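Contributing new records

If you add data, match the layout below exactly. Sequence lines come first and carry their own label; structure lines follow with theirs. Keep one chain per record. Anything else will be rejected by the validation script.
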Amino acid sequence: MKNNSLIKGIRTTVYSLILGICLFSSSAVAKNHLLFSSFQQPTLKISGTITDGSGPLPGVTVTVKGNSTTSISDYNGQYAISASPTDILVFSFVGYTTLNIPVAGRTVVSVHLQEDATQLQEVRVNAGYYSVKESERTGSIAKITAKDIEKQPVTNVLAAMQGRMAGVSITQTTGVAGGGFDIQIRGQNSLRPDGNRPLYIINGVPYASDPVGFNASATIMPTLTSPLNNLNPGDIESIEVLKDADATAIYGSRGANGVVLITTKKGKAGKTSYTAHYSHGFGKVTRFMDLMNTDQYVQMRKEAYANDGYTKYPASAYEVNGTWDQTRNTNWQKELTGGSSTITNLQTSVSGGDEQTQFIINGNYGKETTVFPGDFGYKKGNVRINLNHLATDKKFGITFSSGYTVQDNNQPSTDLTTISRKLAPNAPALYDTEGQLNWENSTWENPLSNLKGKSLSKTYDFVANSILSYALPYHLELKSSFGFTDLKHTESSTFPSTIYDPAYGLDSVFSSIFTNTTSRQSWIVEPQLNWHTTIGRGKIAVLVGSTFNQLTGQQLVLAGEGFTSNSLIYDLASASTVSIMSSGTTEYKYQAFFGRVNFSWQDQYFVNVTGRRDGSSRFGPGNKFANFGAVGAAWLFSKSFFDNGSTSFLSFGKLRASYGTTGNDQIGDYQFLDTYSSSGNPYQGIVGLEPTRLFNPDFGWESNKKFEIATELGLFNDRIFMTAGWFRNTSSSQLVGIPLPGTTGFNSIQANLDASVQNDGVELTLRTVNFQKKNFGWSTNFNISVLNNKLLRFPDLDSSTYANKYIIGSPLNIVKVYHFTGLDPATGLYQFEDFNGDGQLSAKDDKQYLIDLNPEFYGGLQNQLHYKGIQLDFLFQFVKQLNYNSASTLGLPGSRNNQTTDVLARWQNPGDIGPFQQYSTGANAAVASAYTKYRDSDATITDASYIRLKNVALSYQLPPSWLKGVECKLNIQAQNVLTLTSYRGADPEFKTRGVLPPLKIITTGIEFIF
């Protein structure tokens, strides 16, 4: 009761005080009513959409000029803010021109922001363990963003990078869906082909890029299955490639070949938004060989028999002896590889959140059929979640992301490309009158019979990581990253008895299958401590951390043959013989301590020092640990000399340099140990062991010393921006197999060879803003790389097994061939240089002519144009190189293989100059021998330079008034559109011969955001 009385008393006192104040001030309010009303303005709820010409722009800061009212645009580019009718809204975003827009009584204010070349220097670049402003960067980092990636109808992340980054060479290995790509960053550092892969980091988690396939179980592919296909390009926000020592040394032993940082999309604060993008299109082979028709082919075969002295055609010469119809003409390239693949892709996302918590959920499903006949296809689906949270006091933060991908690839077990090029144009029809495979009385092997065999694969991939951070006093931040990956991959290739001619009488006893099961799991923990402070006009930032990483893998490869029925071919228990081709479990452990100190003075001078001490289970007891480090420096001389406005053309100028050492442990596990494997052969009922490797306690790290110097110049307010750099990398202590005498029982021992490989080159990038107005803009990006590679040192090379592969002072990617000197007009035979002058031609003594298959230079030219809601982007990729031509793959002209029309210019009579020698079926030993040497000569390695219209993307953003509350964009995208080349072959890009070329892809799509 006493408490209630006290509360009532307080209430009465407060109410009386308020009433008194109101009565006292009423006269003052009345006298100043006009003055008060002049300051009191109605408040409007203003909303709108912010775009950049190609789509909505999330993350834009919207403020009311003169006060603290602020809003952020959401994933749809939409915002909402309260302001008075006379206020001015300020729209700002890093990399874009700031706009000041009067409200003018409106409730809807939509704006279009334009990229500001000057502001692009303020964009922060991901450098792995830290980020840095573009203008303050001391290392060499190339970057592409989602804007570039989303305009390409590709399924592999490496395809999106082709032609867009200086110093990064990417080559497609096959046009078959689910195929792979080769990548080299600043050349080949290691003598081992599998020792040149870069390190991939996805949201801070190392992602093992080692192949998960096996040759026998992935027969459709020219290279082993790559796990990089698990990444969905539509999920990626940016890709940064770290190239020099300053950028890569903090990754120590794993940074020798460069580092590829992949950051996925994050949610934006704002109302929940939904995005859906659907596209559908087709793919076709880019180029076919110009092959002989039936008349030309039959004439070649008849002339070959005549040259070889035949007066009667053999019974097996079906093309010319009347067995096959000599009026029939089939373009087998179009018949077997000229189909159209259908490509369908659906990408969806939902995102939103507030200032403390943001989220995004992405989903994707894609399907692609094949250009081969038959019902084959590649499917991929994935889902990715990203969650960010920052406490209200800005101290505690957490980031969580995870992604799960499923791939299902169903392809024929045989690539029909080689068959389509060699098959006689008058070969029989594929089907008989009853619709069955036509074997034409066993006179040929029907190519469609290969489609009875299948190459199947399924991959399940899970990647997750979380970053916890807490801001401590005294500018300290404690952070820890946790990551986990889990990959499971199965694949098989079958060869059922139905691939053979039924006349042979082969049943399922002759059927076979090869299977591969691979699993891989890894975890990583990286605690870190950051500290930063200001000292006078200087700034210092310090990072220390450690890494604990483990990767385990299992692989089992089996072969089965002899089945009671082909319907049981996938049941190895039904095979009469099962053999184990490979079986093993590996465990890789890695531990490191790393640090970084960055110092800047007056925002003009920058020094960045990084270091790392690595420990790896892959090396011997005395070499498990090694130290790596680098120093980088930059000087913004434009601030030193030109801040006073003394120049009207130089808006930005920077010199930077770096030097350091990185390492390479890409040698596989247990290479330094004595190892044994199962012999596979039972003895007295017991399967024994056999030694497979010798112990080497001194087995250690490869090291790569890197040096770079570069300049960055911005002219005319950065409307012209150029970067020019020169680098030199020297890789030493090469991890190779050193040959041993046969008496040891081993061919080689894994060891560090005192050999060195040098890569140097020049990289140039140029960005120009050609035209920039409110409704129209045009910008250009150009990059070119000129690289050189050579073997500096190799002890006792002449006496080693590598003597015929390498030459000191020459590139690693050379081939030794005969030197073709022309055609002998008297005999009609090819002629070659006799290097040692002994009057005889031999491979050992006379294959001494060197051909460098490395690109001489490569690059890309990109243009971006937009007019109101229309945007056009196109990219030209160019490469200057040599490659093997068609003469190296099609066989002896005159034999039972079709040829290009080039060989019609052949020798027929004494005095003819060819340039091709006389036809032969192979019975003329002199002609066959000359052709074999011709195939292994420089005559078959010709200019394969090309300019390719790599990508074209045209989009149209519908006006907002057309669909209230919904944004809609229509687009057309194309890949590998046009190739300009003088190359005499199929596709000039490929290094692997006889495989399906890359496809020309054209898709149309529609995107909704609401």
